[in-house]
Design a protein that fits this description.
The complex is a heterodimer.
Chain A lengths: L7 E5 L5 E5 L3 H29 L3 H7 L2 H25 L5 H6 L1 E5 L7 H9 L1 H4 L6 H9 L6 H6 L1 E5 L6 H4 L19 H13 L5 H15 L4 H7 L3 H13 L3
Antiparallel strand pairs in A: 1-2, 3-4
Helix pairs in contact in A: 3-5, 10-11, 10-13, 11-13
Chain B lengths: L4 H24 L4 H24 L4 H17 L7 H18 L1 H24 L3 H5 L2 H8 L4 H8 L2 H21 L6 H23 L3 H8 L3 H23 L6 H32 L8 H21 L4 H4 L9
Helix pairs in contact in B: 1-2, 1-3, 2-3, 4-13, 4-14, 5-10, 5-12, 9-10, 9-12, 9-13, 10-11, 10-12, 11-14, 12-13, 12-14
């Protein structure tokens, strides 16, 4: 069974277990960038409107500022555009707010968190990745490299890994019904693949079209269900009974 | 035979949940010393569980979950040392100048390219006056033809401070781009260095022909030495990156790039505050005639000398001072 068809990062730990982390692809990264970019944009928009609400004569206030204050303000605005990325990556464990929303994280090639230098390199390289427009160079680089790294990542030795939200409750959920069910006499133990198959079917079943739900349920019952035809017919009588049987079958594996 | 999957999850899940809770605490910075020990134990247990899952439950959600859990725990346990304020101080007192001295070959090459550009631009305009049409921006040519300095107008149109901030951000952008273009195998950096040199050379030559060299010197004397030095240093950083792409040495290209990129960015980060400061000088002191030319020139030379003295002397080790190469011990 192929466990990781998507690109991944292999990490060798001192505990002698190989970690395999899924790598975030171009879609995740573009979305995260969009979130960050619009965050910055709306921050300045809101700041501007609040400022104009509080102060009627914007230009006057700006000119009344002392020269050094004014210089610092403009340099500060410029620096936020560049520092935003590095500061949030260093302080929030490799995640800008956008990356946090998308559940992706910057790590070094050995899986450890990024430091100041790596983060600075990869974010300064946005200047080149952006060329000729709208991150075209970065997109080409991400499409060509195996682990979807843009030029800045190549220079910094970093990449983005994806964090999935995995629900373990489905393994331990109690059977919903107590109706008497035909237990397969001398049922053979299920393999982990079968358990996984049945559980993923059960978690998706409420969203399936009725006939698909029926068909998939039937096939699963044929795979894991009772051998004799009579018991099988009883199980297949309705979708509810089929699923109740499958759930009980998996839970019976305890 | 392995335990059935649901039973295994039910049996081990308490530990995993506890580990997740501890990791969340660690991330928010409220982890206590006693809990640290528990975190370590739980991480080792989860690693063992991951090994078990790899063997018996490969490809299931449990496997993926444990992978991710161990990945997060691994990242928070094996953290690199954190860079804090003392590290920043140390960076400017020792590391940045030391890096620059170690990579002086690249900075030197960058300087040579830049000077070559200046020479080229100047010679072209001096020998062939019509070359100025190609090399000097039309706005500047327009001013020079009228016998005025275009820099005088910077002052009259905008207040000096907005000029300062505009110049500072513009210089920062040029520095960043010069460094980042090293990713084109150094070609982009090379182009930018020569191109900037040609521009400056051509403008100086044009001013000299029109008898306005004094005016130009008046404008660039105060900030020129430091600003051009920083451009050259950023160029050196870009060339370092380019060299690691072309000739990675004994490392695979990707690794060489990462190692050299880490060194090169120190040069750029180190230059950033100086660039912001010199932007203030360029905006306040350089334009107009608030200050006499000799004062501007003196200030420029003084700043340049201070900058290079800092770069060449700060944090020198005994080995460097006696001329022995630092890595001769190995």
């Amino acid at each position: 069974m192929r466990s990781a068809p998507t690109p991944h990062l292999d990490v060798a730990t001192p505990e002698r277990v190989a970690l395999t982390l899924p790598v975030a692809g171009i879609g995740y990264r573009c979305l995260a960038w969009l979130v960050d970019a619009s965050l910055l944009f709306f921050f300045w928009l809101v700041a501007y409107f609040v400022f104009t609400l509080l102060v009627s004569d914007v230009l006057g206030v700006f000119q009344a500022l002392s020269g050094v204050g004014q210089t610092l303000l403009v340099v500060g605005v410029f620096a936020t555009q560049w520092l935003y990325w590095t500061v949030s990556e260093v302080f929030f464990h490799g995640q800008t707010p956008g990356k946090r929303v998308l559940g992706i994280r910057v790590v070094r090639m050995d899986g450890s968190p990024v430091g100041v230098y790596e983060s600075a390199v990869r974010n300064l390289c946005r200047a080149v990745d952006f060329l000729p427009m709208l991150y075209a160079a970065a997109c080409v680089s991400m499409l060509l490299t195996r682990q979807h790294r843009r030029l800045g990542d190549l220079l910094a030795g970093t990449l983005l890994v994806r964090e999935e939200r995995i629900d373990l409750d489905k393994y331990t959920a109690a059977p919903a019904t107590s109706a008497p069910l035909p237990q397969g006499t001398g049922a053979r133990p299920l393999s982990p693949e079968d358990v996984e198959l049945v559980l993923s079917f059960l978690s998706r079943a409420p969203g399936l079209a009725p006939e698909v739900r029926q068909r998939l349920g039937t096939r699963l019952v044929e795979r894991v269900g009772p051998e004799d035809a009579e018991a099988r017919a009883a199980v297949l009588a309705s979708a509810e009974r089929t699923e109740a049987f499958l759930r009980a079958r998996v839970q019976g594996e305890r | 035979m392995a335990t059935p999957l649901p039973a295994y999850v039910a049996q081990r899940r308490a530990d995993w949940d506890a580990l997740q809770a501890l990791l969340a605490k660690q991330r928010s910075g409220t982890l206590k010393l006693g809990e640290l020990r528990t975190l370590d134990t739980l991480y080792r247990r989860a690693s063992a569980d991951l090994a078990h899952a790899q063997t018996f439950y490969a490809g299931t959600d449990v496997h993926r979950f444990l992978n991710q859990l161990c990945g997060q725990a691994y990242a928070s346990i094996y953290q690199p040392p954190r860079e804090r304020w003392p590290a920043v101080r140390d960076f400017f007192r020792r590391e940045f100048p030391a890096t620059l001295r170690r990579e002086r070959g690249f900075v030197g090459a960058s300087a040579v390219l830049f000077l070559l550009g200046i020479l080229l631009g100047a010679l072209v305009v001096l020998w062939e006056p019509r070359g100025a049409e190609l090399l000097v921006p039309s706005g500047v040519r327009h001013y020079v033809a009228q016998g005025r300095m275009w820099t005088d107008d910077i002052l009259s149109v905008a207040p000096p401070n907005s000029v300062a901030s505009g110049i500072a951000t513009n210089n920062l952008t040029v520095t960043i781009v010069t460094f980042a273009l090293g990713l084109t195998g150094g070609l982009g950096t090379l182009f930018l260095l020569v191109n900037n040199g040609v521009h400056i050379g051509a403008i100086s030559a044009l001013c000299a022909r029109e008898g306005m060299l004094g005016g130009l010197l008046d404008f660039i004397a105060a900030h020129g030495p430091v600003e051009l030095s920083i451009l050259v240093i950023a160029g050196g950083a870009g060339l370092m990156v380019g060299q690691s792409l072309i000739d990675p040495g004994e490392l695979p290209r990707g690794q060489a790039l990462a190692v050299r990129g880490r060194e090169a960015v120190k040069l750029v980060l180190g230059c950033a505050p100086f660039l912001a400061l010199i932007g203030v000088v360029e905006g306040y002191v350089s334009p107009g005639d608030l200050f006499p030319t000799w004062l501007k020139a003196g200030l420029g030379l003084l700043l340049g000398a201070l900058f290079w003295a800092y770069l060449l002397r700060a944090g020198r080790t005994v080995a460097e001072a006696t001329g022995a190469p630092a890595d001769s011990a190995s």
